[in-house]
Amino acid sequence: MWYEDALASSHPIILYLHGNAGTRGGDHRVELYKVLSSLGYHVVTFDYRGWGDSVGTPSERGMTYDALHVFDWIKARSGDNPVYIWGHSLGTGVATNLVRRLCERETPPDALILESPFTNIREEAKSHPFSVIYRYFPGFDWFFLDPITSSGIKFANDENVKHISCPLLILHAEDDPVVPFQLGRKLYSIAAPARSFRDFKVQFVPFHSDLGYRHKYIYKSPELPRILREFLGKSEPEHQH
């Protein structure tokens, strides 16, 4: 009951979709939740089927369905509060799958934030022949051994963004050793001119290599509160770099 009352209180809510290794309790994730919480956002997160203490076997479709279920659970309890979706790393693939479906059924989130995103899983795998993004995916030892099986996994952020209509913020560190910076930039270059975003702003924020944020430490940026406040605080169309 406490949680349900809290969700109905007047704070925006972020649904956080995590990346591949570990669980919703991973250190860098908890640090981000703390930052977001201190800025006045409720954060709701969960482990996909097959991760953490969630039963089941991972699949792209199943992970997307899990995220959809949690989104609907939040929306049923959040009143008029904004609900934002934040995906990190592999979670960006779940996030764009989810938001594409939400836009198709005309219940878009109030914004989508993609941290360290790729274009699609094929390009990510090509840039990492022994990809770190997969190393911990439960049951995924076969991924690189069986190209036929792997073709069932798309996580096609580049296709999905063409069907998404809500404000989009992309955050990426130039020194990311897991998902190359140029894949995040390429995703931005596909989304920014897309017709689906013509009424919404699309923003790309790079973090210089000297900062050392790599794949999962953007939460450390002292600029992050301002970036979020400026992006989430206004919603007029504005493509900016």
From TrEMBL:
<protein>
    <recommendedName>
        <fullName>Lysophosphatidylserine lipase ABHD12</fullName>
        <ecNumber>3.1.1.23</ecNumber>
    </recommendedName>
</protein>
<dbReference type="GO" id="GO:0005789">
    <property type="term" value="C:endoplasmic reticulum membrane"/>
</dbReference>
<dbReference type="InterPro" id="IPR029058">
    <property type="entry name" value="AB_hydrolase_fold"/>
</dbReference>
<keyword id="KW-0256">Endoplasmic reticulum</keyword>
<dbReference type="InterPro" id="IPR000073">
    <property type="entry name" value="AB_hydrolase_1"/>
</dbReference>
<keyword id="KW-0325">Glycoprotein</keyword>
<comment type="function">
    <text>Lysophosphatidylserine (LPS) lipase that mediates the hydrolysis of lysophosphatidylserine, a class of signaling lipids that regulates immunological and neurological processes. Represents a major lysophosphatidylserine lipase in the brain, thereby playing a key role in the central nervous system. Also able to hydrolyze oxidized phosphatidylserine; oxidized phosphatidylserine is produced in response to severe inflammatory stress and constitutes a proapoptotic 'eat me' signal.</text>
</comment>
<keyword id="KW-0472">Membrane</keyword>
<dbReference type="Pfam" id="PF00561">
    <property type="entry name" value="Abhydrolase_1"/>
</dbReference>
<dbReference type="GO" id="GO:0004622">
    <property type="term" value="F:phosphatidylcholine lysophospholipase activity"/>
</dbReference>
<feature type="domain" description="AB hydrolase-1">
    <location>
        <begin position="12"/>
        <end position="106"/>
    </location>
</feature>
<keyword id="KW-0378">Hydrolase</keyword>
<keyword id="KW-1133">Transmembrane helix</keyword>
<comment type="similarity">
    <text>Belongs to the serine esterase family.</text>
</comment>
<dbReference type="GO" id="GO:0006660">
    <property type="term" value="P:phosphatidylserine catabolic process"/>
</dbReference>
<dbReference type="GO" id="GO:0052651">
    <property type="term" value="P:monoacylglycerol catabolic process"/>
</dbReference>
<keyword id="KW-0443">Lipid metabolism</keyword>
<dbReference type="GO" id="GO:0047372">
    <property type="term" value="F:monoacylglycerol lipase activity"/>
</dbReference>
<keyword id="KW-0812">Transmembrane</keyword>
